[in-house]
Design brief:
About 20% of the residues lie in helices and about 40% in strands. A hairpin with a 3-residue loop joins strand 5 (about 50-60) and strand 6. The relative contact order is 0.21. The termini are far apart. It has two helices and nine strands; from the N terminus they run E-E-H-E-E-E-E-H-E-E-E. It has helices at about 20-25, 75-85; strands at about 5-10, 15, 30-35, 40-45, 50-60, 60-70, 90-95, 100, 115. The protein has about 120 residues and is of the alpha+beta class. The strands form two sheets. Strands 1, 2, 3, 4, 5, 6 and 7 form a seven-stranded antiparallel β-sheet that branches. Strands 8-9 form a two-stranded parallel sheet.
């Protein structure tokens, strides 16, 4: 059984593209299989923990979203958190709630769905 989280970027209440080049730069040191061009990246953190990332690139538009699954606690949680923050994204778990990193995002989610705001 796996659990998925989504990295989504919002502007004016709408999901907008993530910067594909920034994504590549930030994930490159951790990639052990796949890569941005394949739409799938398997990552491995310093402590051995991993994650599978699924992502679709749309040319100039960037990436619509990133889904992380099979991710380990520990260092990989930090990698995913830093990735979301650097991309201007929020982390949205499959079962609701959200972790937001940017002050402007707090108006997008109803108070009941916000887990906590990290600034």
């Amino acid at each position: 059984m796996s659990y998925s989280i989504f990295l989504l970027r919002f502007v004016d209440g709408e999901v907008v593209a993530l910067d594909a080049e920034r994504f590549r730069q930030l994930t490159e040191p951790y990639i052990v299989a796949g890569g941005p061009k394949e739409g799938f990246s398997q990552l491995r953190a310093e402590d051995g923990g991993g994650a599978d990332l699924y992502h679709a690139s749309q040319a100039e538009d960037g990436m619509s979203s990133v889904m992380a699954t099979h991710f380990a606690r520990g260092a990989m949680s930090g990698v995913l958190t830093r990735l979301a923050a650097a991309l201007g994204a929020s982390i949205v778990p499959q079962d609701g709630g959200a972790l937001i990193f940017h002050e402007d995002d707090h108006v997008i989610f109803p108070r009941s769905s916000r887990r906590r705001r990290l600034l």
